């Protein structure tokens, strides 16, 4: 896959944060790893396959003894550098073979410096910044003794009810693959032995995002066509970017839990993709094979997972308890175990742990360094999506204001703005919007604050009067609504996606004051804002932006920064529309162009009719509230002159496309130009549109630029009816636009 946008073209690369790699220490050779394997007892081999939770008291004697006895290959959830070094010393100096431990941690969107949640990072559509954020996260984590993160999560997420959509890059295979690959490169650098590199883990393999009804851990049933064309491509991109490890999903896919799914792990990942890295289970997911009803007991579960190709068991003890007897009884071959152990040893080798097992915090930049803060603010700024801007309410001009009201439960919520998965972030580091706005104006402009509701779910309207009074007395009301961080993330799914608690009522009351109302939503998912949208002049979708939410949002509101963000996921009008995503199939009866009669237009007593029989809901039509790829700017752009270098291309040929973008507004601004295709007729039905590339362009008012794209057969390829991968000759439509709707269009033909 080719990703044309590296995000660095806008001068965003940061030499200052790139710590030059140390000279690579003499690597342990492959022979040494195999020689080491030859010396290992079966118990020591099985020990390497065990990952233990070290969040309790890892310095307790029983834990140390397990390490000393070679019964632990890796640990999870220990981030104190001294404790890590102590454990490592026991492994290296006191265990028989001195094999170092690998220490793992969920560094999902930052370590101490918290960047936007991955869904917010995806809204930046900026692979370069995402890579840099991962690099900073890796440096901070490695400083504290962490060698391995369980990120990126590249699960395609089409269901905002699913709490883990927050951890994803959204609904699109291309964008998710592009950003997943960037994150892998950021964590790992070009070589895992480089200073401050950590191993990445593409998860959750595979199909986890399709959990039925958006309920976490629920079953998934994904036909092979969709699995291979929608859910797997981002994993493939992560593997191609060099992801050292993969984690399997908790879910069952078509009746086979991912932890025992040899089709996924052995056939596709290791066979077809030739992945030679390490596969880890999810937390206790080996033993959960019993709960799933696939295996009768933990022994059968250990056998099923090991046979499917799961190398390390995270947190559970089925491998420790049963692999030995499975080998002795001939139910698992020693070759299988050796293969698993080699994958673990090879990762340790790649990470340079044999030469340099300990961490030395003073070799790293401090946590929350100036470069990290600057980057966190930039990425937060670029993740903000402007969804409504009536009468150009934004940007605000401070000179025209005499007072500002800051209202809402998310205006000063230091922990909540960090989002889900922030084990190592500190709320004390957060700069909230209230703090940033106060700091910005000091004594020069009165900033009045009333939270209105103490937290997002609250129904206590006791604070409404104060909030309304504050709004009424101000020129503009900045209303910070949304979800607390605990309402999204793992196991935090919702069936109702409206603003929680009495927030909608609070907004209505504020709006009635007549004061201009700007809503900033912080949330871990797309919320359904259909009814609330009319109660605001402008809407900024901020996701959970991380440590520097405040300065990022303030810069955007007051015009020091321009809106960059574009939606990485479709916003539904109603929960009942879900799943609603842009790259759906056309069906035999697409609603566009057909006559649609909505529920209130149906005459009472009407008889059944075939008029308007197309794929829509009587009450919501078929369009979402906001489409994938959408986001406004503070300026206005037009596109013209779509040109193709040919209207027919050979299979091995290239198609050049160009189009002119002009800033016809009054401000310098940037726009994200997106390229979509449609394969008009395939051996399998193809999506109505598929994103294939994107480019960001910044233009002065009145300026134009010609944007060029290129398509090759690789961009047109898919997993076909006969299961082979490739492009099919025939007609294609192409769009160049600023969202997944509309744009300039043309057709071309791919010759066989
Ligand atoms: C999650 C994984 C995570 C693991 C370790 C599990 O519950 O599904 O994504 O990496 O815990 O914390």
Overview of the structural elements:
The protein has 752 residues and is α/β, with parallel strands linked by helices. Helices cover 27% and strands 17% of the residues. It has 20 helices and 26 strands. It has a six-stranded mixed β-sheet, sandwiched between helices. Helix 18 links the parallel strand 14 (476-482) and strand 15. Helix 6 runs parallel beside helix 7 (173-188) and helix 6 packs antiparallel against helix 15 (370-383). The chain is globular, with a radius of gyration of 27 Å. Residues 1-27 have low confidence and may be disordered. The site of beta-D-glucopyranose has 6 residues, from loops. Beta-D-glucopyranose is lined by residues 106, 150, 203, 282-283, 490.
Compact overview of the structure:
The chain is an alpha/beta fold and 752 residues long. The protein is built from 20 helices and 26 strands.
Q: Extract low-pLDDT stretches.
A: 1-27
Shape: globular
The share of residues in helices is 25-40%
Distance between the termini: 21 Å
Hetero ligands = beta-D-glucopyranose
Structural class: alpha/beta
């Amino acid at each position: 896959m080719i990703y044309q946008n590296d995000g660095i073209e806008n001068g965003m690369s940061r030499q200052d944060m790139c710590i030059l790699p140390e000279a690579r220490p003499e690597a342990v050779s492959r022979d040494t790893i195999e020689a080491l394997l030859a010396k290992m007892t079966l118990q020591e081999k099985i020990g390497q396959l065990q990952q233990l939770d070290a969040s309790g008291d890892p310095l307790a004697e029983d834990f140390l003894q397990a390490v000393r006895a070679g019964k632990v290959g890796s640990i999870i959830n220990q981030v104190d550098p001294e404790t890590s070094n102590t454990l490592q010393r026991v492994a290296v100096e006191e265990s028989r073979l001195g094999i170092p431990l690998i220490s793992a941690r969920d560094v999902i969107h930052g370590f101490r410096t918290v960047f936007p949640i991955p869904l917010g990072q995806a809204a930046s559509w900026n692979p370069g910044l995402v890579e840099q954020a991962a690099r900073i996260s890796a440096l901070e984590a490695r400083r504290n003794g962490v060698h391995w993160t369980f990120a990126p999560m590249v699960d395609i997420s089409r269901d905002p009810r699913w709490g883990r959509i927050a951890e994803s890059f959204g609904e699109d295979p291309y964008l998710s693959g592009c950003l997943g690959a960037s994150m892998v490169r950021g964590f790992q650098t070009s070589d895992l032995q480089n200073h401050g590199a950590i191993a990445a883990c593409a998860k959750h393999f595979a199909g986890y995002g399709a959990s039925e009804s958006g309920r976490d851990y629920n079953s998934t049933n994904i036909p092979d066509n969709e699995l291979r064309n929608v859910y797997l491509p981002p994993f493939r991109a992560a593997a191609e970017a060099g992801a050292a490890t993969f984690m399997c999903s908790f879910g069952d896919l078509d009746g086979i839990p991912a932890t025992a799914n040899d089709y996924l792990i052995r056939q596709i990942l290791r066979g077809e993709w030739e992945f030679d890295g390490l596969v880890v289970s999810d937390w206790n997911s080996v033993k959960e094979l019993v709960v799933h009803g696939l295996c009768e007991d933990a022994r059968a579960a250990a056998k099923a997972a090991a046979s499917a190709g799961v190398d390390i068991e995270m947190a559970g003890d089925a491998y420790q308890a049963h692999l030995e007897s499975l080998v002795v009884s001939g139910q698992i071959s020693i070759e299988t175990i050796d293969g698993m152990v080699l994958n673990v040893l090879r990762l340790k080798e790649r990470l340079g742990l044999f030469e340099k097992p300990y961490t030395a915090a003073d070799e790293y930049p401090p946590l929350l360094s100036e470069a990290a803060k600057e980057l966190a603010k930039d990425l937060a700024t670029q993740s903000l999506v402007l969804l409504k801007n009536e009468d150009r309410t934004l940007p605000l001009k401070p000179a025209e204001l005499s007072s500002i009201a800051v209202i809402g439960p998310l205006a000063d919520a230091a922990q909540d703005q960090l989002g889900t998965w922030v084990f190592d972030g500190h709320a004390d580091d957060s700069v909230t919007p209230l703090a940033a706005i106060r700091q910005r104006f000091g004594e020069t402009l009165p900033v009045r604050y009333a939270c209105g509701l103490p937290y997002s779910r609250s129904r206590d309207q006791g604070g409404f009067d104060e909030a309304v009074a504050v709004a009424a007395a101000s020129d503009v009301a900045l209303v910070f609504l949304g979800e607390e961080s605990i309402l999204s993330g793992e196991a935090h799914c919702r069936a109702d996606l409206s603003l929680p608690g009495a927030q909608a009522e609070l907004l209505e009351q504020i709006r009635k004051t007549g004061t201009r109302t700007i809503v900033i939503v912080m949330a871990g998912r797309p919320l359904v804002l259909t009814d609330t949208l009319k109660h605001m002049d402008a809407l900024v979708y901020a996701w959970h932006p991380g440590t520097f939410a405040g300065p990022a949002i303030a810069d955007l509101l007051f015009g020091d920064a321009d809106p960059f963000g574009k939606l990485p996921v479709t916003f539904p009008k109603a929960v009942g529309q879900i799943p609603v995503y842009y790259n759906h199939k056309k069906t035999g009866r697409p609603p566009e162009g057909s006559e649609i009669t909505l529920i209130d237009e149906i005459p009472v007593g009407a008889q059944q009719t075939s008029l308007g029989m197309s794929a829509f809901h009587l009450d919501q039509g078929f369009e979402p509230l906001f489409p994938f790829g959408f986001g406004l700017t503070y300026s206005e752009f037009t596109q013209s002159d779509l040109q193709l270098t040919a209207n027919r291309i050979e299979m091995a040929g290239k198609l050049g496309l160009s189009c002119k973008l002009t800033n016809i507004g009054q401000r310098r601004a940037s726009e994200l130009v997106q390229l979509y295709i449609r394969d008009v007729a395939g051996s399998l039905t193809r999506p109505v549109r598929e994103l294939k590339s994107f480019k960001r362009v910044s233009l002065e008012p009145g300026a134009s630029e010609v944007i060029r794209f290129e398509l090759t057969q690789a961009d047109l390829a898919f997993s076909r009816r006969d299961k082979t991968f490739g492009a099919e000759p025939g007609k294609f439509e192409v769009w160049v636009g600023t969202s997944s709707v509309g744009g300039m269009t043309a057709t071309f033909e791919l010759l066989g």
